[in-house]
Amino acid sequence: MTDANDPSDINIRAARVVDFEAIAALMSQPGIRSGTLRQPFATPEQTRKWLESLSDVSVVIVAERADRILGMAGLHRSKGRRHHSAALGISVDDDHRGEGIGKSLLTALIDAADNWLGISRIELTVFTDNEPAIALYRKAGFEMEGTHRAYALRNGVLADVFAMARIREPAAPKAA
Prior knowledge:
Strand order of the largest sheet: 1-2-3-4-5-7-6
CATH topology of the domain at 7-124: Aminopeptidase
CATH class of the domain at 7-124: Alpha Beta
Largest sheet: 7 strands, mixed
Oligomer: single chain
Number of strands: 7
Helix content: 25-40%
Strand content: 25-35%
CATH architecture of the domain at 7-124: 3-Layer(aba) Sandwich
CATH superfamily of the domain at 7-124: Gcn5-related N-acetyltransferase (GNAT)
Distance between the termini: 51 Å
């Protein structure tokens, strides 16, 4: 029997366009909608179009267990003089929080940023009352940079978010 709190049975892989229905269902969950800037009642077709429109500078991954998508995360690289930075977003199934899924997704994206993409600044916003996410981000090296007041409408009230970032200094070249 699988331990729900053991993330070793989680498969992290690239999101695919064929995942659109599962991703739409995931992203429509009340907890995810409340914790993100996603609009309510997005259709699977809108999600499909979004997946099809992702650029080559975005990395979008899913976490699945037994062929069921339980989480999604993305790293969206900036352009021009901000090419060294990327915005991060993570969503985990309402019924599977606290099982290491968010940590697995975050770890995979940080690895991609550090070791494959040369991204030295990862930034995000998180609602100020999302203590589990804030704790996860802090453990991964993210630091508070400020508070955006009245940032987004959530449940009929303008809610605040924290701006957080993880900055990795580029490694010095190895001596020959």
